Amino acid sequence: MQSLTPLVDLKSLFRTAAASPGLGLTPHRVGQARYLIQCVSRFDAPNVNANSSSSAAQTSGSNLASGHVGRARHEWQSACAILASKVVSQQQDTEKSGGADGVAAVNGHPTLDLVPVKEHSNSPTPLPKPLSIADLSPAPMHGSHLRVAYQGVPGAYSEAAAGKAYPNCEAIPCDQFEVAFQAVELWIADRAVLPVENSLGGSIHRNYDLLLRHRLHIVGEVQLPVHHCLLALPGVRKEYLTRVISHPQALSQCEHTLTKMGLNVAREAVDDTAGAAEYIATNNLRDTAAIASARAAELYGLQILADGIQDDSGNVTRFVMLAREPIIPRTDRPFKTSIVFAHDKGTSVLFKVLSAFAFRNISLTKIESRPHRNRPIRLVDDANVGTAKHFEYMFYVDFEASMAEVRAQNALAEVQEFTSFLRVLGSYPMDMTPWAPSSTAGD
Ligand SMILES: O=C(O)C(=O)C[C@]1(C(=O)O)C=C[C@@H](O)C=C1
């Protein structure tokens, strides 16, 4: 088995942030990160899984991966927020008292400590170099590689998607989707590549919710054909198996094929496909198989019991590429734009919003609704018949146009009139890779 890049979890992520001023972190950010490490330590709960891209992952199998930040994420997050704000106020106090970084106040005006000029010296103190255009490049890179965060361990499909999106990138494994978001926000990574939907399994809701909660921008998409294999330890036969473990999406993508193969064994959800393979290898499990990639078989020393077990040969997962800054939309190639909106008077607005696109001949490629978590229910009282409880939604729409096109700008101006909340998640080039379906076990 090869030695692999360690998984980034919340704790190590903040530790790296705190210890690496070279990553482009401001002293403020480094200070925040130090405090965050303390917060994370307080809420560490081994064997409790905080991550899940689906509620199915909360089944017993999801406890397989160990060492996660667990219990009470909301507690942890509010502690982070409080402590991070303390860092800011402490920093402001220090600045006021003139103690930090050589800044002192004279008559209320800060003065800077200048580098002393050494007179008649042959070896002058090196002076700071002025910033040049190159220092201001929009995509900060560390060394020659773009650092791309993904959820899972090496061998996960998300790692392959990161490589497709950014060839030669340094892929950074993260144990949760949220960690991948934060890795970009804290400058540990330059981009994140995260799955949002699969042609068989449907939407990965967790990432839709996180897109709204974080301030990253969609700067691209990649569609990855997903070719699943059934993996087990060398020498294990199908008849020995009592369970199959994998990511909930992968289990759902192979549901019928597993049944057709006569594998009516327990199916358990874990955090990612390659993590399932790693778990079997690490614990020498001879009664368990994983659904994962051929690369995962190679990395963790498993054999392939069956190849191409996805229920459809055209099994494709769509991933979005996320960055701290949006890209400038263009019109010289096909673009897609993703928006999210809500209306405080309910779903009646949906028809008007959709017609704003229809009148301009703009095709929609996806529409998704999620609970409006800040205001999930709207009560409508009618004295005669009682109280109607309407569920409230956030609507996510992808449409085929660039924000550089006037028709898209006009459509959004109209949508803004109808809605109480509107955010453009990104305008980005469409993945136009030629179609190449993978083979299935029955082919
Ligand atoms: O578990 C993995 O390998 C992943 O990359 C995650 C994931 C997903 O979240 O949908 C990605 C692609 C496949 O659809 C199956 C699982």
UniProtKB/TrEMBL annotation:
Superkingdom of the source species: Eukaryota
Purpose: Converts the prephenate produced from the shikimate-chorismate pathway into phenylalanine.
Residue ranges constituting the Prephenate dehydratase domain according to the UniProt record: 147-324
Compartments where found: Plastid, Chloroplast stroma
Pfam families xref list: PDT
Pathways per UniProt: Amino-acid biosynthesis; L-phenylalanine biosynthesis; L-phenylalanine from L-arogenate: step 1/1
Membrane recorded as keyword: no
ACT domain segment(s): 338-429
Protein name: Arogenate dehydratase
GO biological process: L-phenylalanine biosynthetic process
CDD domains cross-referenced by the UniProt entry: ACT_CM-PDT, PBP2_Ct-PDT_like
GO CC, alphabetical: chloroplast stroma
Primary location group: plastid
Reactions performed catalytically: L-arogenate + H(+) = L-phenylalanine + CO2 + H2O
Gene3D superfamilies: 3.30.70.260, Periplasmic binding protein-like II
Alphabetized InterPro entries for the sequence: ACT-like_dom_sf (IPR045865), ACT_dom (IPR002912), Preph_deHydtase (IPR001086), Preph_deHydtase_CS (IPR018528)
GO molecular function, one term: arogenate dehydratase activity
Keywords: Amino-acid biosynthesis, Aromatic amino acid biosynthesis, Chloroplast, Lyase, Phenylalanine biosynthesis, Plastid, Transit peptide
Gene that this polypeptide is encoded by: LOC105169982
Keyword Secreted belongs to the record: no
This enzyme's EC code(s): 4.2.1.91
Class of enzymatic activity (EC top level): lyase
